[in-house]
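Translate sequence into structure tokens.
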Amino acid sequence: MSARTAFVLGGGGVLGASQVGMVRALADAGITPDLVVGTSIGALNGAFIASDPSAYGAAQLTEVWQEVVREGVLWERPVRKAAKIARNPTHLLTHAPLATLLERYLPAADFADLAIPFQCVAAQIEDSTATWFASGALAPAVLASCSVPGLFPPVRIDGRHYLDGGLVHSIPVGRAIELGADRIYVLQVGRVEQPLSVPRAPWDVVAVAFEISRRHRYVEEMAKVPESVALHVLPSGANSSPTLSFSQARARKVTERIESAYAATSAYLAGSA
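Result follows.
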């Protein structure tokens, strides 16, 4: 039996542009998934990959990201943010631009319409649990997985409320293994490539604590990956991957992340062939 290949896409906001370059490199190398799992921005990218895992689909995803930057889906000017805070004390942005982007560019409306199986995760508020979405309407599930606390409002689905999947699974390698994958390509945004340092200032304490809470499950799952599973953590090629990534939401920086990830992943795949 041939290997069951999974693409695992982690969270990271606008740093998810790195995953676009990785997808392009994988497509150019002739590597396509049998399964896609994603969280947060990885849910958005993952839905597009699952709808069309070909090289053409990878090119389309690049265009989507250009639209993300133009429309300010993941970033807005400080003045506009301040105005929204006055109206919405729990969040800065609305889902409207992201929902419009999905409606405009994502060819699938339902999980059943996707070319290959796809799952994404969100954190349920009422029960404090991780909820995996694998059927039904696609857009609400993706929006739920992308709902960064404080940035977007919770998403209501069937009477329950959901926030960003990165709260419960930052890079869901374990889920891919549970679903039977024996060859896994991890599309991460660069943060896990950077070891944490002991904090030396008040802000450092907050940033380090946040990163530990975000990474620990991934670290534990990586340590438990069976030897029978071929695991490939694709390189981002980025010089830095900040915890707060708003400064990266510029056309030039997004393009740089895409191209850096493409070059680094292409070189990695050539070496691992």
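Note: Strands lie at 5-9, 35-39, 118-124, 129-133, 155-157, 160-163, 183-187, 230-233.
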